[in-house]
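Board notes (copied after class):
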Amino acid sequence: MLPLLIALLAAGTTPSASSSPPAAWKADPADSRQRMLGALADELERSLRELKLRDHESPYFVSGAVRGVETEEIASKYGAIFVDALKRERHLQVDVRVGSYELDNTGNAEMFDFDGAESGYAPGREAPIDEGTQALRTAAWLLADESYKHALSAYLKKKGKEIYRPDDPERPASLSREPASVKIAPPQSAPFDRVLWKTELGRESARLSAIPELFDAQLRASVDRTERLIANTEGTRIVSVQAIYALHAQAWARAPDGMLLEDSRDWYGFSEEQLPRGAKLAAELDILAGELISLRKAPVLDPYTGPALLAPEAAGVLFHEAVGHRLEGERQNDDHDGHTFKGQVGKLILPPFITVIDDATRGSVGTTSLNGYFDFDDQGVPAQRTVLVKSGVLQNFLMSRAPVQGFTRSNGHGRSAAGRDPVARMSNLIVESSKVLTRAELKAALIAEAKRQGKPYGLLIRDVSGGNTDTSGYGYQAFKGQPRLVYRVDAATGAEELVRGVEVVGTPLSSINKIAATGDDTQVFDGYCGAESGYVPVSTVAPTILINEIELQRTRKDTGRPPVLRSPLLK
């Protein structure tokens, strides 16, 4: 977990375009990271003071970020090492805004303005990977210049469009006013034992390759060390560091009817010791192989509508896709979005025993790290614990510095991948419940509900590979989940039978309001989420849920022959 040491959090609620960096911060000349941060800040300040085209407006706000990522990775298949890599890169992001906090160039209608494309040149978004303060200033200079021209063009068009639009007194401002933040995190060591992982992964991939039912398998261990430099013309100056370790196992088989079967395991942690090794890793991989062997023999499930138990990972994916994405702030301002929950603040949107929180300040649950932890978001705003839904009632949205109607301040959820512009995104989505049943009670309730509906069985969805959702106003409001392990629970005997070949589909409001109870088995699902601002690390923390009605459809037909010859590794 990263240290939460805040050197200074400058007070004030209405920073102006002329605000200068807090006097308490001065780059330590002995710290190369601070020298680079100082160079970036100096160039942003120069852009604010001097960037102007003829008699047009100058910028009122400029921000920039440098994100350096160093990745070490070992990957193995068939008992051999296939990848042994070290990669270093740095990306640059600059945001230039023209106008004012109340009305500037940003907005969805202007995002797709490419009038500058005919210039034939676009500045790169790379930053120097060594200490090159002048090189960084030069890269920021070119990117700020291009961003200013684009912002000015968009702002003038936006002002022109205002002529045809009626005045809207409830229209939110363009940029929230936030206090400047200053934090210089100490350097962080993140060792990676390459020799150990070569031995571990080589041995275990050889074991998987000796299982005849599996025609392919791979293992991958890595560490991503991320360092962020964030500055803006309001005075924010941040250096942050984070390391995320990961171990991935993936294997493939084919059923006798040709259906492709895939299973995997993903482990994450803020230290190398949190990843399984030795006997623990071997046991986990034996379970994975056993699941695939069982899936080969499992019958294909027909399309289904009825009650189901969703184990914690599956429940987490449901809340992430059906609820979390629809509470991201920018979507409420997007005319092209479906606005599932717009205007619903203070109203019941979930069963009254459900509370949903997004808490980036929480680094772990028990001994399990939470991928979505951070201390400052990618706009330099302190992370905050945000109650989104309390006892079923909508309370808040995930907010970046883009205000929405009724919410004028960020709650520290502006996030992005390297080189991308931040928008409101989830971090650690936590589901809490006041209606908790034991595992046995949940299974009994599932069987009772199946009988009440006249169904011969209910379903138990133990594991999922992920999900996706469509929030646009052009399509149907829907989400989809890809379960790996689905069990048919006989309503007469309670016997569980593994089945395959289905995926979860549904509409968000209908599905989440059919949750009848939850379990006492809260678990963590770590991963990465891809959306408009790129892939960011996230977690869900959820219990098993009983849902009275869920719909499963057949998966896309994807069949093929297994390898004709036996693997040369099999004697």
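Comment from the instructor: Residues 1-22, 472-477 have pLDDT under 50 and may be disordered. Residues 8-71+88-188+233-239 form one domain.
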